[in-house]
Every structure is written in C-alpha cells, then in structure tokens.
Amino acid sequence: MQSKVDPEEVQKLADEVRRAYTSVEAGRHGFEVLPQSKPDAFGNSASGPACAQAHHAARTAMWTLLKAFSVTVDSDVERLTSALKVYRQTDAEAADQLLEATRGRLDVLSTHLSKGDDEKQRQAQVEQINRLGQITNDHQNTVIAGDLNSSQGGVGPHGDAYRNLGRQGYDTDAGFIHDGKGGTSSTGARIDHVMPRGVGTSEATRWSTADHESDHDGIVTDIKMPNW
C-alpha cells in the first residue's frame, strides 16, 4: 500500500491542534482548584453549605477532566510533529513503517550527569548533554529525565546544548514547576529536568523531600502517548 501524505496539510492540522491545546490550557486554568468556599459564600440559607460543597466538587471534577484532555491533545501535537519530521526526512513508505514500529513504544532515559565547577567538569556536562541527543536521535517517543547538574539558561555551551535538544523536538521546559520555589535541588537551582519528545505531558508538580530520602525534591508529570 502506497502512503499518500501531504506534509503541508499535516502541518496545517498540527498547527490547528496546537491552537486547540493552547485554548484548552487557558480554559483549564480557569477551573484551578481553590480552597473550598466558605459555607456562606452561597448565601446564609440552609442550603448554602451544600451549594458550596457541590461547587467545589464540580470545579475539581472539571479541573481533572480538562487536565486529562489537555495532556491527550498535547500528545497528538507531539505525535504529529514527530510524524512530520519522519515524512520530510524519508520516503512515505519507510515513514509509515517507522511510525507503526514506534507506536506504543516509549523510551525513558534516567541519568545523573557529572558534577563540578571546574572547566573540565563543565565541558564534560556539555558533552554528556549532547550525547543524550545523539543516542536518542532515531527514537520517536522518548523522555530524558534526571539530575543533569546544569541549568538551561545563558548563552554559553550549556545553553547551546539544551537548545540543541529543543531543536531535536524535546520539550526542555516540561519539568519546570510553577510554584515560585525555584528548582528541586537543595540550593533551589534548576538542575533537575524532565524532557519529553513525541508524548504529551501535564504541568509538572513537586514531590516533597518529606516523602523520600533525598536532598532533591521530585518532579511529577503525567505522560500520555497517542494511540496512532
């Protein structure tokens, strides 16, 4: 069977799905779960407390539903992006076979890179980050996670290495936690990362060190793989 795929049409579809994802995310934050309303928030009648409780339950349910839907749409965006890359780099039949072979497959790399402030160690970190991109170059659905002992910002070699992963399709900011506490290391530096490619992820949350023996908090995110 000869595949008939128009990459430009797929690109249009990917753009529309990405816009849909942005809209769902914006709507989801409108239902962010807040502390339960005071009983008198819905009046001082006898049914006020029941209304407050029902409102909180409905808001929580909608938040959970939209979170799941958002991750699902994000996974479709990632899969379309990966498919486009494959179709543009190889012939349609080979692309079909590759996408079929990687359907339902997820590669997870957990790593702990070199630590040190001297120039030799910093260069080793850069080489290791670049190596991660090299060894996963042909992998479609991948998550790189771990203590990389380096931050993404800046204009130096580290920043270039992370930006290169971004150009390879990795979401280098997927592990960023929006709680105002900085990173998950004991110093608050953003040296721990979760970087998916080809799969959708939910907004990252913090797993407190109170729950486990480590000098780093954990990063928690849901992953969704498209079923196509």
Can you give a write-up of this model?
The chain contains 5 helices and 7 strands. The chain is of the alpha+beta class. It has 2 domains: 7-98; 105-224, 4-Layer Sandwich (Deoxyribonuclease I, Chain A), CATH 3.60.10.10. A 3-stranded mixed sheet has the order 1-2-3, with no helix packed on it. Helix 1 (7-29) packs antiparallel against helix 2 (48-89), helix 2 (48-89) crosses helix 3 (92-102) and helix 4 (119-135) packs parallel to helix 5 (157-167).
Order of helices and strands: HHHEHEHEEEEE
User: What is the oligomeric state here?
Assistant: single chain
Count the helices. How many? 5
Order of strands across the biggest sheet? Answer: 1-2-3
Total domain units: 2
The CATH superfamily of the largest domain turns out to be: Endonuclease/exonuclease/phosphatase
Please report the distance between the alpha carbons of the first and last residues: 18 Å
> Beta-strand level of the residues, as a percent range?
5-15%
CATH class category label of the largest domain: Alpha Beta
The helicity comes to 40-55%
Give the CATH topology of the largest domain.
Deoxyribonuclease I, Chain A
Biggest pleated-sheet summary:
3 strands, mixed
The total beta strand count reads 7
User: Would you identify the CATH architecture of the largest domain?
Assistant: 4-Layer Sandwich
Query: Structural class of the secondary elements?
Result: alpha+beta
What coarse outline follows from CA principal-axis ratios? flat
Query: Radius of gyration, Cα only, in angstroms?
Result: 21 Å
Low-confidence stretches: none
Mean pLDDT: 87
